[in-house]
Amino acid sequence: MQPPAPGQQPNLFKVASTSNPASVAGAIAGTIRERGRCEMQAIGAGAINQAVKAIAIARGYVAPSGLDLVFVPAFLDIMVGGEERTAIKFVIEPRR
Known about the structure:
alpha+beta, 2 helices
């Protein structure tokens, strides 16, 4: 997981296939508690797998405080190294 680049939303996390899902889950839980929502982006099957695992783990982290998390996936076209790539963006919020 990388911290947001300058000019990016401070609650947008980039998840890689090498990201530790438990660490990402902690970041999700903390951001949800502080800001009420969180966004992640992932490119590739491995990164998407780690992101979904992190969301599942984060649900367990916030459940004792009465929160249940849901997420909405969306496609996102981004530039990476001068190439346009398609990422998956996850918007994570407490269930209302």
